[in-house]
Amino acid sequence: MAKVVKKKKKGLRTRAFTGGSAVQTSNLRPVNVLKKPPCQNSCPNQTSIREILTTIGQSEKMERTYDESFVDAWNILMEKNPFPAILGRVCPHPCESDCNRQYKEASVGINNIERFIGDYGLEKGLKPTLLSEEKQPEKIAVIGSGPAGMSCAYQLTRLGYKVTVFEAFPKTGGMLRYGIPAYRLPRDIIDAEYHRLEDMGIEIKCNTVVGKDIPLEELRREYDAIFVGIGAHKGKMLGITGEDSARVFTGTGFLNRINSGEKIDVGDNVVVVGGGDTAIDAARVARRIGAKATILYRRTRKEMPAIDEEITGAEEEEVQFHFLAIPVEVNTDGDNRMVLKCQRMELGEPDSSGRRRPIPIEGDYFDLEASTLIAAISQEPEFEGLEKVGNPKDWVKIDEQGQTSVENIYAGGDAFQLGLVSIAIYQGRIAAQTIHSQLRGIEIPKEEELPIIKHDKMLLSYYEEKFLQEAECLTPDTRLKDPEAEIASTLTREQVIEEAMRCMSCGSCFGCDECWSYCQDNAVIKPLIKGEPYKYKMEFCNGCKKCAEQCPCGYIEMH
């Protein structure tokens, strides 16, 4: 038998065979390294998006029916989000902006899949999973039934606590109901998702203003912990001469009255000031009640913070946009008409938001006629009776665990800082974890930190081109004829399956067999049980790197 002589070089292993040529192989060996996909990383609530999509997309491979997979996907969603049917409609889906699939052809339609799964759960009457059958002795009070408060209440109820929610308005939902128009978020969807939480045992007391109807100190005596999620329902005025007219509204005030069922005569020519979602919603509502609508914004379209799809929807509905201008004075005549004196602006250097700062152009004014003016520039919480927790200047201050400076009082959502619904849900969830940990005397659980997988560490050429499944939408004419008609439809069952199959399972093995197929040394072991990771016979491995190079999702590394 020929004698094998091993010679070592830095980073390489050389096998020299008598009578044969030398073959160099690497000292590196394959290691399975689970990574965080960028979709989850950019989700404020850290939703397990990859797991949801692959649960559906790999149904046949895992020998599950699609209905079984839909139920599993719903349960994964409900681990962190009590409102999947709501978020599937109103979330601006930052997850899709970071999806690695966009470097192939287009991002996966994650938000549309979430909406389908949320609707599926409502249709099938699915019930959330409890985390404990044990009933805890402590009572928790939640102030506000918006997304932050209900997220906290939901998680604590799952843990066995008795939770009572105090809501100032006649119905539940906070800004979900009173700030978002029905054409974006149908009221039956809000009602259904909230009824499910009440069925879990969460008590909700509407028309109850903490700080007026019930003193905060009374709650502190009766409850072991309090979460403050009062939202920011108070709109800000422009601070200009003449805005005390009866035909001038704040954006949140206008939407609240409309969403409460009130009929408002806005005339035929509405001007909305602002560039956020509230401004867009106000203008589109004005179109639905028969008025012409113009949005006056101090920057350009590029800098508008509103959801891009909503801006496009407004353009389709013939909302007019007047950029680089602000109103500086309101003049009203006796016929309920007003003339807005406006000043033109120009963009300077970027400010703290990263957007270019608007600068007034001295002496450059123009007039704009209007029948109604809506100031949708910002909003703030109402702290009357809650001064111990927050104030109009500093709002509510919380730490990373949702605690305020007041013992046993926690907070989150817009009362802390204006933000996305998903951020509010995250803050409510984290506060619930903190409350539970402190009441039980246990450590707050920490999520495992994983490296983030980017597209340049993947083999995109492996994946077949599959283009985005898009939802059907009503035409602009149809929308305006039926003011509460939901604009976009939910994807069909077949569309959701096709769309879920577009997920590339970034950073997590999906059983493609590429590593096994390309290994010529039989060093890769296929799992006997589907879904388990591939293993390696290191004594057979020569470090050729083919398994890592051919792994489409970037799961295998050479160490």
Please sum up the structure shown.
Helix content is 29%, strand content 20%. With 559 residues, it is α/β, with parallel strands linked by helices. The chain folds into four domains: 22-34 and 509-558, Alpha-Beta Plaits, CATH 3.30.70; 42-126 and 460-495, Alpha-helical ferredoxin (Fumarate Reductase Iron-sulfur Protein, Chain B, domain 2); 139-233 and 381-440, FAD/NAD(P)-binding domain; 237-377, 3-Layer(bba) Sandwich (FAD/NAD(P)-binding domain).
Overview of this protein structure:
This protein is α/β, with parallel strands linked by helices and 559 residues long. The protein folds into 4 domains: 22-34 and 509-558, Alpha-Beta Plaits (2-Layer Sandwich); 42-126 and 460-495, Fumarate Reductase Iron-sulfur Protein, Chain B, domain 2; 139-233 and 381-440, FAD/NAD(P)-binding domain (3-Layer(bba) Sandwich), CATH 3.50.50.60; 237-377, FAD/NAD(P)-binding domain, CATH 3.50.50.60. 29% of the residues lie in helices and 20% in strands. It has a 5-stranded parallel β-sheet with strand order 7-6-5-8-21, with helices on both faces. A 5-stranded parallel β-sheet has the order 10-17-11-12-13. A 3-stranded antiparallel β-sheet has the order 1-2-3, with no helix packed on it. Helix 4 (84-90) packs antiparallel against helix 6, helix 7 (147-158) packs parallel to helix 14 and helix 12 packs parallel to helix 13 (308-316). The protein is globular.
